[in-house]
Amino acid sequence: MTELIPAFDFQRVFIAPWTHDFSSSVWIAAMGFLVATACGLVGNYLILRRMALVGDAISHSILPGIAVAFLLSGSRGSLPMFIGALVAGAVTTVLIEVIHKKSRVKQDAAIGIAFTSLFAVGVILISLFASKVDLDQECVLYGEIAFIPLEGSVQLAGFKLGPPSVVRMAVVTLVVVLLVGLFYKELLVSSFDPGLSFSLGINSTFVHYALMAMLSVVVVSAFEAVGAILVIAMLILPGATATLLSNRFPVMLGLTVLHAALSAVLGLHLGVWLDCSLAAAMVVAATGLFVLAWVFSPEQGLLSRCFKGRSSEAAPLPESIGSAQ
User: 222: domain range?
Assistant: First the structure.
């Protein structure tokens, strides 16, 4: 009978990945960091807007997009898959807005209608054209970040930049950072108060659709590594953890990047130890960091609130009140 949890070997878990398997580990950790950073930065704004599940909707609805892209192009190349998934993400965003604004259906229900319907369409397409659509459903749903080092390297001017998916994700992450920096005020104001943004001359509707477009690009770029199901965790966990640790939004963005780095490295070691999906291990590591922040946060942690509650109960009554009684 095999052990439920493998024996812990410090040499194999912490040393070997950075010595014997350095070339693979560094690209896996880099991809995890880039995905978590890009998703987390966009996710902060989704959390402010109470739209975190939009990322879940887009991550599920890209399945029909990549199926149709394969049927039309007959290729599993990155470009047709990326275009098909991106179009599906845009359709999902528009469909959610149309259902929400043109009916009495609430936004959360509109999100559920859109992504479940499109995801079901994707499943039907793959079932009907199973002989033509040569797609690995498990890879689409769960991703396989461990295969990234096997992709080869992109060469530019004689220099090897790295695996194509990592290079693409690095470009997307850099674009996200630049856009957040350039349009920081517009994104922040429209997220907190759309009415105030209009009074300041900021078109909150345009900012909303621009944010949704950026979200679609990030999700489509990330799902190849972490899969459609796990990408939603990368969108929520870094921002949610940062929210517990600070009330200042610039600090929250910095903590998001730190959370991304820690979850990528810790998840890599956890996956090596348990011999499991590295993408899932990174999400578990990210969840562990969230739990630590939830418990030990100086201002909003469970221990802090418990201590403050006991202190207020134990505090003596003022003399004036005591004498009045």
Answer: 11-149+162-301
